[in-house]
Design brief:
Elements (H helix, E strand, L loop, with lengths): L1 H7 L9 H6 L4 H13 L1 H12 L8 E6 L2 E6 L2 E2 L1 H10 L10 E6 L5 E5 H17 L8 E4 L4 H13 L3 E3 L6 H11 L3 E5 L1 E4 L2 E4 L1 H8 L7 E5 L13 E3 H6 L10 E2 L3 E7 L7 E6 H15 L7 E4 L6 H13 L3 E5 L10 H9 L3 E4 L1 H10 L2 H4 L8 E5 L5 H11 L6 E4 L10 E2 L14 E2 L5 E4 L11 E6 L9 E2 L3 H9 L6 E9 L5 E6 L3 E4 L2 E4 H9 L4 E11 L3 E10 L7 H14 L8 E4 L13 H9 L13 H9 L4
Parallel strand pairs: 4-17, 6-7, 6-8, 7-14, 8-11, 11-12, 16-17, 16-18, 18-19, 19-20, 31-32
Antiparallel strand pairs: 1-2, 3-13, 4-5, 9-10, 14-15, 15-25, 21-22, 23-24, 24-26, 26-27, 28-29, 30-31
The site of 5'-O-[(S)-ethoxy(hydroxy)phosphoryl]adenosine has 23 residues, from helix 12, strand 20, strand 26 and strand 27.
Amino acid sequence: MSDIESLLKETRSFKPDPAFSKQANWNKKTVAEFRKAGAQNSPRFWAKQAKDNLTWFTPWKKVLDWKPPFAKWFVGGKLNVSYNCLDRHVEGPGAHRRNKAAIIWEGEPGDTRVITYAELHREVCKFANVLKSQGVKKGERVVLYMPMIPELAIAMLACTRIGAPHSIVFGGFSADALRDRIDDAGAKMVITADGGFRKGAGFPLKKAVDDALSMTDIVEKVIVVERTKQDVTMKAGRDVWWHDLMEDASPKCAPAKLDSEHPLFILYTSGSTGKPKGILHTTGGYLTHVTTTFKAIFDIKDEDVYWCTADIGWITGHSYVVYGPLANGATTMMYEGVPVHPGPDRWWSLIAKWGVNIFYTAPTAIRTFIRLGDEHPNAHDLSSLRLLGTVGEPINPEAWMWYHKVIGKKRCPIVDTWWQTETGGIMITSLPGAVATKPGSATLAFPGIDAEIYDDDGEVAKPPNGGLLVVRKPWPGMLRGIWGDPKRYKEQYWSQYKDTYFAGDGAHRDKQGYFWIMGRIDDVMNISGHRIGTMEVESALVSHHDVAEAAVVGRPDDITGTAIVAFVSPVGGTDASDKFKDTLRAHVSKEIGAIARPAEIRFTDALPKTRSGKIMRRLLRDVAAGKESSGDTSTLEDFSVLAKLRESDED
Ligand code: WTA
């Protein structure tokens, strides 16, 4: 609640600059019209966008088929994502983009590649033929486990060309996490690289694939990109080099004419249980959503260089590094490595070097740069920037103001975009030519999106009261389900309120109807903008033979937003030492990945529980944050447990 109160005191507001509005893709008038159209008849509004912004092989017969909670968009329509992202920029009315940069890529060591639309089209067609020659058929899932190199985008687009849904696993996930996702998706092929560059060194990926595949036997083929030239073992008959396969591949490959509801990709994300959910997105609706929002929110122009710093392994990278930008014929930039290598000014030097005009990043990165000092951005020419965006977590007004002043030099509008893996594309956001911004608020729902805040009874919360963020009408980019688990899909998102999507975030609206997002209300933590389930970390911890029980909570952190705190009770006789903490951290890294490693581990004999045996996380959250427990402790089994946990603070 204190967060809500402090945000409520935020009264600063920034009106769109008339000069920006004048040139905006969506100016005030357009936005007003679209808001009205979207409110009156959202399917009709989205159908107009689908027609104006995409190329369809066959028009749809019905815009929306809504049998809650299952939606089908553009029923009967046929299209191809790679055709929309590539072919229409190299032939026909869009052919002026043939030799325009589609991807500007910079590797961490400083090597660069600029790939034109014609070249990207050729590479994608070749790799689509490779996929076919290696036995991948329409509908078969392909797992991508790769660094941030152009081949990742090429592989994604090649999958879409033949209708093979991809499932990208972020390169920071461990072999175990990779194996889970391969098994759950039932993938026969994995595409990977020997490794990638991070913090000045090559990290291994192929090795993790080998480890993962030693635990499952469903994968028949592994295609390996040579990136770092580190030593790898190639298993005969299973593993093949990307460059060998590409050598003779034909650059001609007709795009598959896919049904609008054909599965486009699966992306795993954390939920409130230990098992990640495979979020399923399909073709026509998703592409309509990301193409339209990209054009409107990022105000993209043909001359722009656009840079979204997200890794493609997360939804932001899918929607706003690859599909949204390329479907619009934009130049999208990709950077392989960490933000501060070799020095704290790498990002700012990249903006100056490539003349980046539109920059989209996460609050956690902004907070890191604030701490590193203004001299680093100030040392570079950032005058090319004209628009800034943020995503992934609530941005605190101080960080927003720093971004506005130090990076945007008070010239650039900021779009704070709220959305989720499940929503596919941006849902609540400012529109740079039309909506006044307030630091810390994601402002208003995108036209055609019906977002609201409900109280526990399912009534619209009355400002200034907060509540739970919901979406009342289906939207084109919405998830179509959880892979292989329709029951969990219903329970997770559609059981709180009738026929209404439950996002899992707390929020409130101010008098102007602006949304202020407070963050997750379930057992999902947002660590540097990445979702990690407390249950996932707990199951990783208890899988260690010396751990009897574990409870994991988040505590506020100035840089990462939330930090992971684990309360662990070791089995009797285990030495609760710092060394054991290191062991447990390494164990979690192995089970999930380094991003899930607890910032803090506290050993305890017992965990506070209710009489029915449920761990009282609310209390642990207070203990972790160093707060006195404010909540009701009347059901607490053993008060002394709490007192002891406080004492353990000292370590
Ligand atoms: C949080 C990332 C506040 C939110 C695109 C959501 C945000 C979760 C914002 C989804 C924002 C994302 N302001 N919170 N602008 N954007 N979130 O699936 O808690 O990785 O539920 O998708 O991030 O994370 P995900």
